[in-house]
Amino acid sequence: MERLLLVDDEVGLLEMMDAALNLEGFHLVDKATTSHEALNYVRQHQYSVILLDVTLPDMDGYLLCARIREVTNTPIMFLTARTSDLDVLTGLNVGGDDYITKPFKPLEVIARIRAKIRREQNYREPDKSERL
Protein backbone atom coordinates (compact mmCIF):
# COMPACT_ATOMS: atom_id res chain seq x y z
CA MET A 1 0.00 0.00 0.00
CA GLU A 2 1.32 3.43 -0.98
CA ARG A 3 1.94 5.99 1.77
CA LEU A 4 1.92 9.72 0.96
CA LEU A 5 2.98 12.79 2.93
CA LEU A 6 1.25 16.14 2.33
CA VAL A 7 3.00 19.22 3.72
CA ASP A 8 1.13 22.54 3.62
CA ASP A 9 0.19 25.17 6.20
CA GLU A 10 -3.32 25.45 4.72
CA VAL A 11 -5.39 22.90 6.65
CA GLY A 12 -8.29 23.22 4.20
CA LEU A 13 -6.06 22.27 1.29
CA LEU A 14 -4.70 19.27 3.23
CA GLU A 15 -8.24 18.09 3.97
CA MET A 16 -9.37 18.57 0.36
CA MET A 17 -6.36 16.66 -1.03
CA ASP A 18 -6.76 13.93 1.58
CA ALA A 19 -10.42 13.45 0.57
CA ALA A 20 -9.55 13.39 -3.15
CA LEU A 21 -6.70 10.93 -2.56
CA ASN A 22 -8.96 8.68 -0.49
CA LEU A 23 -11.54 8.60 -3.27
CA GLU A 24 -8.76 7.54 -5.66
CA GLY A 25 -7.59 4.69 -3.42
CA PHE A 26 -4.79 6.36 -1.43
CA HIS A 27 -5.69 5.62 2.18
CA LEU A 28 -2.34 6.07 3.94
CA VAL A 29 -1.91 9.85 3.85
CA ASP A 30 -0.01 11.71 6.54
CA LYS A 31 -0.46 15.47 6.80
CA ALA A 32 1.95 18.04 8.22
CA THR A 33 1.48 21.80 8.61
CA THR A 34 5.09 22.60 9.58
CA SER A 35 8.54 21.60 8.39
CA HIS A 36 9.37 20.23 11.83
CA GLU A 37 6.32 17.96 11.73
CA ALA A 38 7.18 16.85 8.17
CA LEU A 39 10.77 15.95 9.12
CA ASN A 40 9.49 13.87 12.03
CA TYR A 41 7.19 11.96 9.66
CA VAL A 42 10.01 11.41 7.15
CA ARG A 43 12.23 9.99 9.89
CA GLN A 44 9.48 7.58 11.00
CA HIS A 45 8.00 6.36 7.69
CA GLN A 46 8.86 5.50 4.13
CA TYR A 47 6.77 7.40 1.60
CA SER A 48 5.92 6.73 -2.02
CA VAL A 49 5.57 10.47 -2.77
CA ILE A 50 5.86 13.68 -0.75
CA LEU A 51 3.81 16.76 -1.74
CA LEU A 52 5.42 19.90 -0.41
CA ASP A 53 4.44 23.57 -0.23
CA VAL A 54 7.15 26.24 -0.38
CA THR A 55 5.60 28.66 2.11
CA LEU A 56 5.62 27.10 5.56
CA PRO A 57 5.63 28.85 8.95
CA ASP A 58 8.91 27.50 10.33
CA MET A 59 11.17 26.86 7.30
CA ASP A 60 10.74 27.39 3.59
CA GLY A 61 9.91 24.34 1.50
CA TYR A 62 13.14 24.59 -0.50
CA LEU A 63 15.26 24.11 2.61
CA LEU A 64 12.90 21.40 3.82
CA CYS A 65 13.28 19.60 0.48
CA ALA A 66 17.09 19.69 0.83
CA ARG A 67 16.82 18.30 4.37
CA ILE A 68 14.49 15.53 3.23
CA ARG A 69 16.96 14.68 0.45
CA GLU A 70 19.58 14.01 3.16
CA VAL A 71 17.56 10.98 4.31
CA THR A 72 15.49 9.74 1.36
CA ASN A 73 15.20 9.69 -2.43
CA THR A 74 11.40 9.59 -2.28
CA PRO A 75 9.87 11.62 -5.14
CA ILE A 76 9.03 15.15 -3.98
CA MET A 77 6.39 17.20 -5.77
CA PHE A 78 6.15 20.88 -4.95
CA LEU A 79 2.54 22.06 -4.75
CA THR A 80 2.68 25.80 -4.22
CA ALA A 81 1.38 29.26 -5.02
CA ARG A 82 4.93 30.43 -5.86
CA THR A 83 4.87 30.67 -9.66
CA SER A 84 7.92 32.59 -10.88
CA ASP A 85 10.48 30.89 -13.12
CA LEU A 86 13.04 31.35 -10.36
CA ASP A 87 10.75 29.56 -7.89
CA VAL A 88 10.27 26.62 -10.25
CA LEU A 89 13.99 26.35 -10.99
CA THR A 90 14.86 26.59 -7.30
CA GLY A 91 12.37 23.85 -6.42
CA LEU A 92 13.74 21.50 -9.05
CA ASN A 93 17.37 22.34 -8.27
CA VAL A 94 17.07 21.63 -4.52
CA GLY A 95 15.76 18.13 -5.21
CA GLY A 96 12.14 18.42 -6.27
CA ASP A 97 10.91 16.01 -8.95
CA ASP A 98 7.91 18.06 -10.05
CA TYR A 99 6.54 21.57 -9.50
CA ILE A 100 2.79 22.25 -9.64
CA THR A 101 1.36 25.70 -9.05
CA LYS A 102 -1.85 26.63 -7.25
CA PRO A 103 -4.62 26.67 -8.19
CA PHE A 104 -4.36 23.10 -9.42
CA LYS A 105 -6.66 20.29 -10.50
CA PRO A 106 -6.66 17.55 -7.84
CA LEU A 107 -7.12 14.76 -10.40
CA GLU A 108 -4.11 16.00 -12.35
CA VAL A 109 -2.03 15.98 -9.16
CA ILE A 110 -3.21 12.43 -8.45
CA ALA A 111 -2.31 11.38 -12.01
CA ARG A 112 1.18 12.81 -11.49
CA ILE A 113 1.46 10.98 -8.16
CA ARG A 114 0.56 7.73 -9.89
CA ALA A 115 3.14 8.43 -12.61
CA LYS A 116 5.86 8.97 -9.98
CA ILE A 117 4.90 5.76 -8.18
CA ARG A 118 4.83 3.82 -11.45
CA ARG A 119 8.28 5.18 -12.39
CA GLU A 120 9.71 4.21 -8.99
CA GLN A 121 8.27 0.69 -9.29
CA ASN A 122 9.78 0.35 -12.77
CA TYR A 123 13.20 1.28 -11.38
CA ARG A 124 12.92 -1.58 -8.90
CA GLU A 125 12.03 -4.14 -11.58
CA PRO A 126 14.52 -5.48 -14.14
CA ASP A 127 14.47 -3.78 -17.53
CA LYS A 128 11.53 -5.21 -19.46
CA SER A 129 13.39 -4.88 -22.78
CA GLU A 130 15.79 -7.61 -21.60
CA ARG A 131 12.86 -10.04 -21.58
CA LEU A 132 11.93 -9.44 -25.25
Describe the structure.
With 132 residues, this protein is α/β, with parallel strands linked by helices. It has one domain (3-124): Rossmann fold, CATH 3.40.50. It contains five helices and five strands; from the N terminus they run E-H-E-H-E-H-E-H-E-H. The protein has helices spanning 11-23, 35-44, 61-69, 85-93, 106-124; strands at 3-7, 28-32, 49-52, 76-80, 98-101. The protein has a five-stranded parallel β-sheet with strand order 2-1-3-4-5, sandwiched between helices. It is globular, with a radius of gyration of 15 Å.
Descriptors:
five-stranded parallel beta sheet
Brief rundown of the structure:
It contains five helices and five strands, in the order βαβαβαβαβα.
Topology record:
Layout: E1 3-7, H1 11-23, E2 28-32, H2 35-44, E3 49-52, H3 61-69, E4 76-80, H4 85-93, E5 98-101, H5 106-124
Parallel strand pairs: 1-2, 1-3, 3-4, 4-5
